[in-house]
Amino acid sequence: MSVQVTTLPNGFRIVSEPMPGLESAAVGIWVDAGARHEAPEQNGIAHFLEHMAFKGTATRTALQIAEEIEDVGGYINAYTSRETTAYYARVLNSDLRLAVDLIADILRHPRFEAREIEVERGVILQEIGQALDTPDDVIFDWLQEAAYPAQPIGRSILGASDRVRAFSERDLRRFTAEHYGPGQMILAAAGGVDHDLLVRLAEDHFGDLRPCPAAVADLARFHCGERREVRDLEQAHFALAFEAPGYRDADFFTAQVYAGAMGGGMSSRLFQRLREEHGLCYTIFAQAGAYADTGLMTIYAGTGGEAMAQLSALTIDELKRSADDMTEAETARARAQMKAGLLMGLESPSARAERLARLLSIWGRVPHVSETVARIDAVDMPALRAHAARMIEAGRSALALYGPVGAAPGLAALSQRLAA
Amino acid sequence: MSVQVTTLPNGFRIVSEPMPGLESAAVGIWVDAGARHEAPEQNGIAHFLEHMAFKGTATRTALQIAEEIEDVGGYINAYTSRETTAYYARVLNSDLRLAVDLIADILRHPRFEAREIEVERGVILQEIGQALDTPDDVIFDWLQEAAYPAQPIGRSILGASDRVRAFSERDLRRFTAEHYGPGQMILAAAGGVDHDLLVRLAEDHFGDLRPCPAAVADLARFHCGERREVRDLEQAHFALAFEAPGYRDADFFTAQVYAGAMGGGMSSRLFQRLREEHGLCYTIFAQAGAYADTGLMTIYAGTGGEAMAQLSALTIDELKRSADDMTEAETARARAQMKAGLLMGLESPSARAERLARLLSIWGRVPHVSETVARIDAVDMPALRAHAARMIEAGRSALALYGPVGAAPGLAALSQRLAA
User: Fold this and answer.
1) Which of A101, B40, B93, B386 reaches 20 to 30 Å from A37, CA-CA?
2) Beta strand pairing status for A13-18 and A185-191?
3) Is the separation of the CB atoms in B97 and B201 below 8 Å?
4) Is A276 designated active site?
């Protein structure tokens, strides 16, 4: 099994990895364009554009797009994140060409008909409504905003309803022209794939695409903010973030292993303390998310309103304690979980294609799995303790609270306890 | 690749399927015990028991259980449904024995300590709170209750909070004794597995387990009920169910393909009509769920409160129309999606192990994939039209509405429109 990478003269890249024995393939195009590339008045346009891609091209109606892929039992979908928009398909091997043809068509020749824009606006307004009705969605958007106020990376991906109501074909065309250049796109595929075929298809569909300048996203500036909204819900939702390393930082894997040891699995500290010992919550986790220039370690828990003081005190105390008494055994366990998760994930063509695109975009190459494993293995107990100590010393955190949280301790109280 | 099945003298079954080339395995025990096997005063105990399994055994604390599996990078989890409780793990091949040892221990020797029961009660009450804050969870529980009122199969899996507050060790022991016999259990594994090793481990851990009589669940009686609750939410949630075939019914696959054609993918009728043409909703789907003796075809959509009349009228009209004009192309597409979904699912060890257990439990054997494919292929357009006509003729449906639904048409209006 080997990864192959090809770059077309205009900068468009193709990356693939065959997985012997598989009857299906995952293929997609990852574009370096997400919510953080939007100007303030554009907020929500990257996601709107992702929706409009499926609403018809110069030669296909929306129904034809859906029928062509589903006739062969495949599926096609897309997502928008803060730095990326991805369009991907899962098909049986023999239909790889069809999948690439379709994805290329919806990216190169979208129609953006006025009537279809109106219809899709309604769909997106419902998607926003659905997110607003889901406390787990709401609180992470608020946490992002609290951490990065008045910055592109702090805004929601879906955008505000009133902005979504105003988008026009012109806005869609402008964002496409600004961000959908060949240097911003990667065609990635894994499973039963043929690299040469993918390169030929990419040449046919994207070889003529004119480069556009790479977008320079504003550097993220972490802010120690808080957002609290009292609402009559069953649970009080708590989300706390600390500034963390970005993808390219030397201590990226340290942050990953640390988050795993603190709140990754059932044996992690926060799971054990908050759930197993005190029965305070059902969902509790810590995770280290990363962007190009920065990252966030997020801790989330849902509990009863009356338990918020206890939950936040226990959380802060576990963070503090970890700088002094994180053990070698916990570190080794977090490393083992991360490595096994990596290896198991690679058994899925979708996860593998996504990994190829992400690594190529970040590093300009795809490190071998053994290289990633070695970097994880290099994280030891002293590194975790030092990481925790730096985090506590820096004291840079942001907080979001939602539900029966009127009496919950705020960021000042939490920061004070952490520094004490 | 071939499936192997072994039955121990006490009725305990082992089923496995090797997947060459995989470095990991999925293994679990599926128990024929779920919410529908509970007496009214037991509602929620199957799920409570699933939680308590992880809270300590005769020889392991909760922390040791978590550490043992996570030390090797594996994970262990469980779920409870209306007919099944499953305990499963994902590990690298070399740790298969460890995973089986652990799962066997938590099933055979749970400790049910009073203190741990109290702690876990708190966790489950938070899980219930989380579900109540999630409209998508709430509405499907209500739909189930509307369709099967005052019946075990109609009750929620989590149980009501006041019942969960009352459960004791005695309740847990009673449900275990009634439903966790060797004839109710299947050890299933897929990936890098060794059947002979699995059989030896099963003999060691379960060979001495005394049979208990198979539970006879009350036959489900579908009821044309409605539940509506007005609440200040962004979206109005609509869930409509029709009585459908059970797993063992001759027309099980007809119902599956029909649901796919109506609301399975992007090209399906309801997706096209409600979302692509009218922009009424973001989430819209139809699916045919099945139990041992019956099934439910469920249609779900979330929309704005003012659009409920239009949404339900369009839905009913599409159902009616399908009995007359469902095409061969739509049928073929739904078949293709179902077959490709099956084949792609089989590339995941977890999905494959789950399939082995489910089929063995239903049929007493594991039909070859080609047999399932042949049954799907046997569903043609006339079968779908006839299925729709029977469903309309029978007119047996149940409805749940949640959110700004004060003015939404009720079940009587929908049934009248369907019959008109």
Assistant:
1) A101
2) parallel
3) yes
4) no
